[in-house]
Every structure is written in structure tokens, then in C-alpha cells.
Amino acid sequence: MTLRPDADFQNFLKQGHFMLQRSRASQRCFFYPRMLEPGTGNTDLEWIPASGLGTVYSVTVIRPKPPAQPYNVALIDLDEGPRMMSRVEGIPADEVQIDLRVQARIAQEAEQFFVVFDPLTH
User: Fold this and answer.
1) Handedness of CA 45, 46, 47, 48 (dihedral sign)
2) What CA–CA distance (Å, rounded) separates 65 from 69?
3) Residue 65 neighbours by CB under 8 Å, 6+ apart
4) Which of 37, 54, 57, 70 could form a disulfide with 78 if both were Cys (CB 3.0 to 4.6 A apart)?
């Protein structure tokens, strides 16, 4: 069996599933997709569905030259433990705040699929 964590992750996204890798031994999830668990080197990895829930840990607003609109780059602490870089959509870039609760959504541009986040509405 050939391990292709990046390709597997993209295939899951293409099918509409946000998945995370987890070590069976430590039960720790991590992101980005890898061949072995960071810190331990465990290779007993499995894919599990992500809840899609997280909290903004840090955010930076990028202000490109007009007419392009400002956008944000955010670090999101997933409820499963890993931290990932993404962006928060659905509200103006300046309104994204640390500790904002967010929900993942799979987005597509050209042939590339990726995870973005929207503010969690109750």
C-alpha cells in the first residue's frame, strides 16, 4: 500500500469530507497530512471525520491593492486538537476576532479543494 497523505486528503475533500489523521496509539489528531505522527513517529495512522468546529487562535487582515478586497489569514484551533491555517469567510475581514467560534466548509477553486471557515451561528 502506498501512503499518499496529501492526495488522500484532497480526495476526501473532493468527496465532501473534512478528515483528520489520528494515531491509534496516542489517539492524537494532527494536521497537515503526514506519513507519521509528529513527535512520536507513530505510523499507525487512521483517517477520522473532523467535527468541523474550531476557534480562531490568531488572525491577520491582508489589504491588497484596490480593487481587490481585504481578506484574512487565520490560525484555527480545531476542537480535535490540531491548529490549521485557513481563512474565515462570511463576515468582513476586519470583524474576525480571536476566540470566534467557527465551522468548517469545503471550498473549491479550479481543481483544488480546501477548508475555509464561517462564523458559527447558534
Assistant:
1) negative
2) 8
3) none
4) 54
Contact 19, 47 (CB under 8 A): yes
The band of 36, judged by pLDDT with boundaries at 50, 70 and 90, is very high
Strand order in the sheet with 101-109: 83-86, 71-78, 53-62, 101-109, 112-119
Count how many Cα atoms sit within 13 Å of the Cα of residue 58 in the half-sphere of its side chain.
5
Q: What is the largest CA-CA distance in the chain?
A: 51
Residue 26 to residue 38: CA distance in whole angstroms = 11
Full-model pTM: 0.91
What are the CB-based long-range contacts (under 8 Å, 24+) for 42-45? 45/21
Residues 6+ apart with CB under 8 A from 11: none
Each residue's pLDDT tens digit, 53-83: 999 999 999 999 999 999 999 999 999 999 9
Go through the domains of the chain in sequence order and give each one's CATH number: 5-119 (2.40.50.840)
